[in-house]
Amino acid sequence: MPKMKTHSGAKKRFRVTGSGKVMRQRARHVHKFQERPARQARRLVNDVVVAKSDVRKVKKMLGL
């Protein structure tokens, strides 16, 4: 049986913490920060936990 391949897009977008939670970056946290209010830019900095309904799909894509 061949090895299962990791989804290339998923490995760039998600990470798994030591406790097993799947984290993602917030939307709009890539560029154009000078066009956003400082309050919004600060809010977008922190990573958030992936929705419970999507965790199983994401873990499968990551090969976990």
Draw up the topology in text.
Layout: H1 8-13, E1 14-16, E2 22-24, H2 38-45, E3 48-49, H3 52-62
Antiparallel strand pairs: 1-2, 2-3
Protein name: Large ribosomal subunit protein bL35
Region (Disordered): 1-37
Keywords: Ribonucleoprotein, Ribosomal protein
Unreliable residue runs: none
Distance between the termini: 17 Å
How many strand segments? 3
The residue-averaged pLDDT reads 91
> Helical stretch count?
3
Strands ordered across the widest β-sheet: 1-2-3
Alpha carbon gyration radius: 15 Å
- What is the percent of helical residues? 25-40%
| Main beta-sheet annotation | 3 strands, antiparallel
SSE order, one letter for each helix or strand: HEEHEH
Can you give keywords for this protein?
64 residues, alpha+beta, three-stranded antiparallel sheet, 3 helices, structural constituent of ribosome, Ribosomal_bL35, ribonucleoprotein, ribosomal protein, Ribosomal_bL35_sf
Structure description:
By secondary structure, the protein is α+β, with helices and mostly antiparallel strands. Helix content is 39%, strand content 12%. The chain has one domain: Factor Xa Inhibitor (Irregular). A three-stranded antiparallel beta sheet has the order 1-2-3. The longest helix is centred in the C-terminal third of the chain and has 11 residues, at 52-62. The two termini are 17 Å apart.
